[in-house]
Amino acid sequence: MNAGYISIWIMLMAFILMATGWSCLVGLTVKNGKWLVVTIAVCAALQPVRETFRLGNMAIHVYAGTILLMLIMLLVMSGPVVWDSRGYLLVCALLAGMIWGCLRKMYSVDPVFFWLDPLLDGPIAAGVLAAAFSTKGQHQFTVLLYAGAIAELVHAMLQRGSYEASIGSLQWWDSLWIAFAATRVVSLVFQALKNGVVRFVPIPWRNKGGS
Question: What is the DSSP annotation of 121-165?
Answer without folding.
Answer: HHHHHHHHHHHHH-S-HHHHHHHHHHHHHHHHHHHHHHSSS-EEE
